[in-house]
Amino acid sequence: MYTDVIIKGFIEDQRLRSASMNDGPAFYRNLEKALDTHRRGQTLLGLKPRWPEPIVDFTTDDTLSLSKSGRVREGFLAEVANHPDFDLSSSGSRVQYGNYSYLNQVEQEIADFHGSEIVYITQSGFAANVAVLSGVPLPGDAVVYDELVHASTHEGLHLSLAAHKLPFRHNDPDALREVLISLKSTQPLFASGSQSVLICVESVYSMDGDVCLLEELLQVSKEVFPLGNAQFLVDEAHSLGTIGPSGKGLVSLLGLEKEIAIRVHVASKAIASVGGLILCNKAIRYMLLNNARSILFSSAPPFPMVAAIRAGYKLLMTGETQEAQEKVQSNVKHFFRSITATSIWEEATNAGILSIPLLDDWEEREFQTQIVPVRTQPGQEKLLFLHLLTNDINAYPMSYPVVPKGESRIRLIFHAHNTTEQIDKLAATICDWARDMLDVKSGKSAVATSRAAMQLHALQSAISP
C-alpha cells in the first residue's frame, strides 16, 4: 500500500544516525550530526516515490493537466520531427556558441505573446530570480521585497550587490509606502534618482494562494518615487496558464505590461515543461549577460528544453488551454461550496482545528487561484496528510521553515483533471479528520489521539528494531 511505503520511508529518514558514525570519517559524522537536528524534529526531507494511478492528485503543478493528458509531449515530439537534425547540446553559453537561431526565434515568439521587448530563457524559474537579483541591482541600490516571496528571491538577495535589502508586510500597500518613504528620507541618492529600488512581489503567492495587489503597490511606488527609479520584479510562476487572457498572467490581465520592468515566468508548472523565462528590455538583458554569473558561466538551454517550452506555449497561444483554465476555476469554486456545505466545517473552524483563509469573500473575487491552503494547528498538518493519503488522496503538508511558525498547512493544488466526485471526496475526508480531532479534543474519543496518529505510531512500532 502506498501509504505504508510513505510512512516507512518517513520513519527511516528520521532515524538518528550520528551516534553510529563514531568510528567513521569525521567529515561524514559532522554531516550526520547536522542532519540529526532535523531528524529530532521529524522535519528531514527525503525522496518520495511517485504515487500509483488510484491516488488522487491535489499536489502536482500540472495545473492544466497538459502533462497528464500527453498534450505537451505530443507538441514536443512534433517540434522534434520538424527539426530532426537538432543539436542535443547547446555547446556553450549565450555569449559564445550557445546563442543559436531556434532559441532566439522561440524567445521572440514568447516575447510577442506577452507584450514584452525581450524574453530570456533560463534553466529554471529559481535560476531566473537568482540571475535578476544578482545581476541587475547596482552597488548602493535597494531591493524591497514582500515578506512572503519565494526562496529563490532570498537566494538571489544573498548574491545581490544592493546595499539595502528591506522586507515589507505581506501584500500591504501601506507597509510598502512606509519602507519606501523611510528609504527616500534617509538616503538622499534615492530621492534624487541616483540610486534605484527593485520591488519584488509574486502575482500568486505559492504557499498562500493569494493574489498580489499589484495595481495598488505600483501606485505607491510612483507616488513615492515619481522619477521612476523604483521598478518591479513580478514573479509570475503560478499565474502563467491560469490567470489572464490566454493564461498570460496577472500583469497582462491588469494591462500593466509597459509598467513592470521585469517579469519571471516558469514553464515547469501549468504548461508542463521546464525552465524559467525573464521578460524585460534590452538594457536588463545586457545587465544579466554581464553581471549575472549564473548566466554568464552556464551553457545555454539546449534544443530539447526550448522545444518543450515552445510546445507548452503553443497550446496557450492557440487557445487550446482555455477550457482547462476555466475548469480549474470551476473546480476551486466547487471545493469551496462543497467543504462549507458539510455540517462539521463551521464547528471545526470555530474550534481552531482548521481554517481556509481564501474562503473569506471568495464569491466576490474576479477569479480564484489553483492554490488553496488548509491551515491546521502546528504538527497536525502531517496527520491530516496521512489521513488523506489513507483515503487515496495526495496533498502535501507544509511546515516551518517552509511557512512561518504557527502557520502549518496542507497545500491543495487544483487541476483541470480533478473531477467533482474527487473534490467532494476531498472535502468529506478533510471534514472526517476534523470530526476525529474534535472528538479527541472534547473527550468523546476513547483514545487521546487521532486515528491517523495511531496508524503512524503502530507502523513505527512495527518496524522499530
Describe this structure in words.
With 465 residues, the chain is α/β, with parallel strands linked by helices. It contains 18 helices and 13 strands. It has helices spanning 2-13, 26-40, 71-82, 101-114, 125-135, 151-159, 173-186, 188-191, 214-224, 250-253, 282-291, 293-296, 303-317, 322-340, 343-350, 380-390, 420-442, 451-463, and strands at residues 56-57, 118-122, 142-146, 164-168, 197-202, 230-235, 262-266, 276-280, 354-355, 371-376, 393-394, 397-398, 409-413. The chain has a seven-stranded mixed sheet, with helices on both faces. A four-stranded antiparallel sheet has the order 9-10-13-12. Strand 5, helix 9 and strand 6 (230-235) form a beta-alpha-beta unit. Helix 7 packs parallel to helix 9 and helix 16 (380-390) crosses helix 18. The longest helix is centred in the last third of the chain and has 23 residues, at 420-442. The radius of gyration is 24 Å and the shape is globular. The two termini are 21 Å apart. The mean pLDDT is 94. This is 8-amino-7-oxononanoate synthase. It comes from Hypoxylon rubiginosum.
Describe the secondary structure blueprint for this structure:
Elements: H1 2-13, H2 26-40, E1 56-57, H3 71-82, H4 101-114, E2 118-122, H5 125-135, E3 142-146, H6 151-159, E4 164-168, H7 173-186, H8 188-191, E5 197-202, H9 214-224, E6 230-235, H10 250-253, E7 262-266, E8 276-280, H11 282-291, H12 293-296, H13 303-317, H14 322-340, H15 343-350, E9 354-355, E10 371-376, H16 380-390, E11 393-394, E12 397-398, E13 409-413, H17 420-442, H18 451-463
Parallel strand pairs: 1-11, 3-4, 3-5, 5-6, 6-7
Antiparallel strand pairs: 2-8, 7-8, 9-10, 10-13, 12-13
Helix pairs in contact: 1-18, 3-13, 4-13, 5-6, 5-11, 7-9, 14-17, 16-18
